[in-house]
Amino acid sequence: MNIDMPIVAKVGMGDRPMKLRHAFAAIACLMLSPAAAMAQDEEEVVITGTRLRDAVRDFVGAVTVETGGDDQVARWDGRVCPGVVGMAQTQAQAVVDRIALHALDLGLLVGEPGCAANLLVIFTRDSDTIARELVAQHRRALGYYGGGDGNTRGRAALTDFAETPRPVRWWHVANTADESGFVIQDSDISGAPPPTVQAPGGGSRINRATQQVFSRVIIIVDADRVTGARVGTIADYVSMAALAQLDPDADTTQWPTILNAFRSGVPEDEIVLTEWDISYLRGLYGADGNRSGGSQRRAIQRAVVEGSE
Question: With 13 labelled, which of 64, 120, 158, 183 sits at a CA distance of 20 to 30 A?
């Protein structure tokens, strides 16, 4: 997948109040309709055998995070409708198209043009202020209170989202759903853990009667911090962050992943999803969503190993 795209220039978006209005209006739309809906050009890394399995286990363990205290890895289940604000139309469409391409590869449905966005990408030259004010003014949209507002990684992680300067930052809100994907309202009202059922065929694997599914994802890209990067690099980086809930603080420098794209400045060449990235996503979406987090991680590990052999 090698799509030639132009280099991103600084995005001119007017004064800050206008940017905030656009971003906040988009966040409001998320709350109104939360569920509507390859290799890096770097030195090649060759890992084989036992060393490969160990490296993959460490990679998956480092980047994967569960949603709240539910011990499950969230993912999309149903329709994804990506929306981009703050970019020129042609660049925004390129980002939307790339996200849609990866979502379709995972078997997800992608909303038609004009659908209510549940995956919002905000490009801004003032991401630090935008993030802080989103958290201060739109806590419900970010799942701050839990319960019917959704499940997240918690308030400490939300503070990190607001206060830590990054080229790209992301925030995921998930809902508890049954095995068919039907969202269960007020999932934590009783304070009791979700029920479990014995996996078909017996054995020691335990499946739950519920799963964690994304209801909305917000990604903020700092235009100044990614200036000079190709749109394809940004679009694939955003796709990885949008389709899986990843630890933004994970040190991934020793593994072949697009998550390294902005660790040492802005790359001059286009970097796309690596084999590990693609296999990670396929492993996440190929596993049963109602498995425990540990079982989901092992499924992802197997997919990455198989994709590397």
Answer: 158
